[in-house]
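LAB NOTEBOOK - FOLDING QUEUE
OPERATOR: T.R.
BATCH SIZE: 2
PURPOSE: Compare the predicted structure-token outputs for two unrelated chains run back to back under identical settings.
PRIORITY: normal
REVIEWER: second-year student, initials M.K.

ITEM 1
FIELD SEQUENCE / FIELD STRUCTURE:
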Amino acid sequence: MKAENFVENVENVKVPFSDMKEWSQALFQAVGMDEEDAEITADNLVTADLRGVYSHGVMRVPIYVKRLQVNVTSPTAKYEVIRDSKATALIEGHNAMGQVVGKHAMDLAAKKAKEYGVGYVAVRGSNHYGASAHFAQMVLSEDMIGMTGTIGGNIMAPWGGTDRRLGNNPFAIAIPALTKEPIVLDMANSVVARGKIVLAKKTNQPIPDDWAFAPDGTPTTDATDGYNGTVQPVGGYKGYGLTFITGILSSILSGAAFGQHLTDSDLYEEFTIPQNIGHYMQAIDIASFIDPELFKRQIDEAIEYMHNSPKAKGVERIYVPGEPEALKAKKQMEEGIQYPLSMIEELKELSQELGVSARF
């Protein structure tokens, strides 16, 4: 079941991108974020919704606001570059919002890539940063390939284990094309992002039995049981291997928290100890290897080659990674972003509590 189906299968409304971004930004400013940081965070979340990735969109606003209110995430902290060595850097986030730290880290990676051909920035002391694709796509307009990965609270068991010892540790890679939509692979190393289970729980809908294990280790279709249990790794032991390696690159390399130093599901359940989340951001300057226009033309050809494969029975169209989201974004930018009415009502209640005018 796709995340967008959670929206289409319940009573919903359409909200223009600019209105939802303005509304979300106002909510973050109401709990102490400055205008620039609030705008960066709101843009990250609403863009995820625009692309149909609702699990990483404004459904996160209430939990982010709650964490900012109790200062377990700092609304005013500013990042600091603490190591800088030509093509690499290490950033200390000082417990700022992950979206804010992540943007500055990728900006720095791109700057380094322009000078050295590649830039790699490791981050510690950050927080949940939203959809990974957002950061990977930041460098596309500069004829670069963007890559990122991050760690999350422990919600997955190691292969063959039974308790939570790993996040689903998503990563993303974005590759520019000439006339086609860019290739954007954004995947958690679980069958689905846990946010989709949270969204199903919020909207009282069942989940497929290959999304999560209940606390007793058995597959479940109950979103609450799945939320209280563990996510299933994609591809069995291969998904476990990917999440383990992504955790090492994003967190052990940067000095961020990993394993027993992360509390279970701490975004939603731990409100006293900062997360100390780690990320990595990498930018590759295509011009350092090949003429960018030639590269992008060949990417177009590669995309067409995938599109033109003989279709299996019942398949109407073959996509490359990121294409469905790009098409969704174009449609919703024109028509408005489709939101469950229950989510809008939750934001209205939060707005009333914070003295913010609802934008819808």
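ITEM 2
FIELD SEQUENCE / FIELD STRUCTURE:
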Amino acid sequence: MSVLVGILVVVVGIAVSIALHELGHMLPAKAFGVRVSQYMVGFGPTLWSRTKGETEYGVKAIPLGGYVRMVGMMPSAPEGARRGRGFFAQVVADARDQSVEEIRPGEEQRAFYHLSTPKKLVVMLGGPVMNLLLAVVLTASFLAIGFTQQTTTVATVSDCVPTATGAACDPATAPAPAAAAGLRPGDRIVSYDGTSTPTWSALLAAIQGTDGHAVPVVVERDGQRVTLSVTPVDAHRAVVDADGAVVRDADGQVKVDDGAFLGIAPTIERQSLPMSLVPGEVGRMFTGTAGAVVTFPARVYQAAAQTFSDTPRSADSVMSVVGVGRVAADVAGLDATLLDRVAIMLSLLASLNMALFVFNLIPLLPLDGGHVVNALYEGAKRTIARVRGLHPLPGPADVARMMPVAYVMFVVLVGSTLLLVVADVVDPVRLF
């Protein structure tokens, strides 16, 4: 049941992300007077739709995207232009004809191509920016929930320095540095040797290399800060597992850990992470996603090669929506608290929205970035003409001429998606 719930959460999350992306296009388009005839989440056969005002709102069967149909995306052919021959020439002509046919008599000025360059940019960037905002909100949400982790609050204090054999130690002959310094369970270590220790990992890093030296330690005890002096020792101690049993290697020898020893164990509790980490986390997601998009063809090939060979699928392999759903199922089945699983789900959806943001900015039709480039080209032409004092100013950019590129991109995207779906079914990514 938990696995089904996990998959449902991701499916709903993806649907909401797509719906808000398209809403980011539709709202400014309507505000600028463009007639929006359709707002659809999904592709393929329509499962449900309802017309309100001049717009049909609906849900389609294949949840791999969505679209907003804005009337007049492409202007008619330039005056005097001849209808070309050949497949791609027919594609261009059909795109122009369809765009013009959508414009109702008397509503010519409501066509999208009549918008100014700044307004076109607002409309086309509205979708990706909505996904970016969602990524930020989701990132802030899972950081606020936090994760179960080790803290700098002391849970237990060792009586003595453990031995390399795992045998019982003697507090009288080898007292633990923490016990000798007066550290107690419940103390929260604020700083170590003058270094702030907000996390357990920061404390471990500060301890290393201080064996044999008297070090000041500031702890928070009963609401007050107390400064103690501790001298860690260089201990050769047996490695133990979670149950406290001594760990041995393949030859039966006790595994030994060397390094500065203090003699404390951390408490395990949920900690919310500060909101100051949100920009860095969002930036990390952006750079990682941008790198994946740049190398997308190579990564799709790698995923296919790993799927149809004995090479295991790498954990950082690109995935389809099916792969994301399988990861969600793995998350739902984790032996972890409900809040931990929710936090991981939110992190997964944040990464997905960042991917939608970056991917849609690729400057090729039919993606939003392709329309952005055309709008910038159109604006640049008009600006140059205005500076040169030319009249009349150039008309709207002839976007229809880019339709062959859009068709090729569409075939590539569909092919890549199908290939990744097969890979995610045959050899799914295993993160846990």
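REVIEWER COMMENT (ITEM 2): The mean pLDDT is 86.
FOLLOW-UP: none requested
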